[in-house]
Amino acid sequence: MANKYRQNKIKQEHTIIEDILPLLEDIALSKLIKSIIPGRINRRKGSGTPAYIQLKYNTQSGIKLIAKNSDSLQEIFVVTDYPDRTMTYLKKLDYTK
Q1: pTM: predicted TM-score of the whole model, two decimal places
Q2: Which of 22, 75, 83, 73 lies closest to 43, judged by CA?
Q3: Are 51 and 94 in contact (CB under 8 A)?
Q4: What is the mean pLDDT of each run of 10 residues along the chain (97 residues)?
Q5: Pairing of strands 72-80, 52-58
Q6: Which among 20, 50, 73, 88 has most CB atoms closer than 10 A?
Q7: Is 82 helix (H, G, I), strand (E, B) or coil?
Q8: What are the angstrom distances between the C-alpha of 26 and each of 11, 30, 46, 47, 77?
Q9: Which helix (H) or strand (E) holds 25?
């Protein structure tokens, strides 16, 4: 039975901020990543910047990221057995900082 909240490796029980889903789908293609779990969304003052993902730190189950667009930011949790290798992979992507 399929999980109604999961498409590929991305859990979609909650809203994902605008323009971030394509970036997460691209990240999910990596064999290093088991799952991507979007978290809480917070508002921020509009800055007119395009969507990007900021690398934060390792967690017990993987990596914490912050996804940002011009008016919101969202916590993203990446589940992986190889956080250091995954962080190196993510640093090479054009849309991460």
Answers
A1: 0.85
A2: 73
A3: no
A4: 65 84 92 94 82 93 93 94 94 83
A5: unpaired
A6: 20
A7: coil
A8: 14, 8, 25, 24, 15
A9: helix 21-28
